[in-house]
Amino acid sequence: MKFKGTVHRYGRDIDTDVIIPARYLNTSDPAELAKHCLEDLDTEFVNNVQPGDIIVADENFGCGSSREHAPIAIKAAGVDVVIAKSFARIFYRNAINTGLAIMECPEAVDAISNGDIVSVDADAGTITDETTGETFTAQPFPPFLMEIINAGGLVPRWQKKLGKDA
């Protein structure tokens, strides 16, 4: 699985209430959630994000509540992968369950700037800042997690395995 996009850079402790504010939790429609992704942190995010873009953040990304809405909003907004120094554990699992690729790589986070073009080879665990030419190594996903992400999430993966339509 390979990704390439423009970086949207954020700090530490980006919680799920900032990723998708609670006032929008009356829907689970991905397109509607995407319209409000990160709006309390970055009012221009939804206007600037393009399909395939990448979020890079410091420690504890996705802390706060356990809502699945947060990774759904990020993915529906067009982000292909989130790279952070660390993730809140429940966000990490919710991201996998909803098919959002995430990678931990503190060295890459320290070096990558907002607006850089970054390519990611999730199978190999390499992150390359195309803007600076620097390459970093992250832990690649094991095959069973890649299968979930490639399928678009845990439920679609099982539907495919069971031969059922979504």
UniProtKB/TrEMBL annotation:
Note the subunit structure. Heterodimer of LeuC and LeuD.
Instruction: Write down the SUPFAM superfamilies for this protein, in alphabetical order.
Output: LeuD/IlvD-like
Q: Does the keyword Cytoplasm apply?
A: no
Q: Name one GO molecular function term.
A: 3-isopropylmalate dehydratase activity
Q: Main role?
A: Catalyzes the isomerization between 2-isopropylmalate and 3-isopropylmalate, via the formation of 2-isopropylmaleate.
Family per record: Belongs to the LeuD family. LeuD type 2 subfamily.
Q: Does the keyword Lyase apply?
A: yes
Q: Which UniProt keywords apply?
A: Amino-acid biosynthesis, Branched-chain amino acid biosynthesis, Leucine biosynthesis, Lyase
Q: Which InterPro entries match?
A: Aconitase/3IPM_dehydase_swvl, AconitaseA/IPMdHydase_ssu_swvl, IPMI_Swivel, LeuD, LeuD_type2/HacB/DmdB
In which pathway is this protein known to take part?
Amino-acid biosynthesis; L-leucine biosynthesis; L-leucine from 3-methyl-2-oxobutanoate: step 2/4
Superkingdom of the organism of origin: Bacteria
Q: Domain (Aconitase A/isopropylmalate dehydratase small subunit swivel): give its ranges.
A: 41-105
- Write out the catalysed reaction: (2R,3S)-3-isopropylmalate = (2S)-2-isopropylmalate
Under Pfam families, the record lists: Aconitase_C
UniProt-recorded name of the protein: 3-isopropylmalate dehydratase small subunit
> Which EC number(s) does the record attach to this protein?
4.2.1.33
Q: Which species does this protein come from?
A: Adlercreutzia equolifaciens subsp. celatus DSM 18785
The biological process GO terms on file are:
L-leucine biosynthetic process
